[in-house]
Amino acid sequence: MFMLDTNVLIALQKGDQEVARKLSTLNQESVGISSIVELEFRAGLIRETADSRSYQIGHAILDSVRVYPFDSSAATSGARLKLLSKNSNKMDTLIAAHAIAMGRVLVTNNTKDFENIPGLKLDNWAE
C-alpha cells in the first residue's frame, strides 16, 4: 500500500516514464495521496493556465488518484512527529504523519527530506 508524495505527481505530470511504469504495475486500490499532497499539487496547478498541457495533465492525475482525507488519526500522528522530528518542513511532516497513520509506504523522490522520521517507510521510484 503506497501514498505518493507531491514530487511523484509532478514527475508523472512531466512524463517520467519510470514512475509511470512502476505505478502501472500496481493495483489502483493500493495507491493514493494525502489531502495535504492534493493541496500542494493544486497550489502548483493554480500557477498554470487552464488551457496548458501541464494543467490538463495535472488535473487528469488528480482525477485518477484516490485522495485520503487528513483525519484525527493523522493529526495525532502529526502531533507526535512534531515533537520527535527534526524535519523543519511542516507539510512534509504532515504527509509523513498521514502515511504512518494509514500504515502506507510513502513514495517520494526526496527521501532525504524524510529519512529521519521515526516509523516512516519510504520508497523512491526515481532510483
UniProtKB/TrEMBL annotation:
Gene3D superfamilies on file: 5'-nuclease (3.40.50.1010)
UniProt entry keywords in alphabetical sequence: Hydrolase, Magnesium, Metal-binding, Nuclease, Toxin-antitoxin system
Signal peptide coordinates: none
GO molecular function list: hydrolase activity; metal ion binding; RNA nuclease activity
Protein name: Unannotated protein
Family to which the UniProt record says this protein belongs: Belongs to the PINc/VapC protein family.
Cofactor(s) listed in the protein's UniProt record: Mg(2+)
Annotated PIN domain residues: 3-118
Keyword check for Transmembrane helix: no
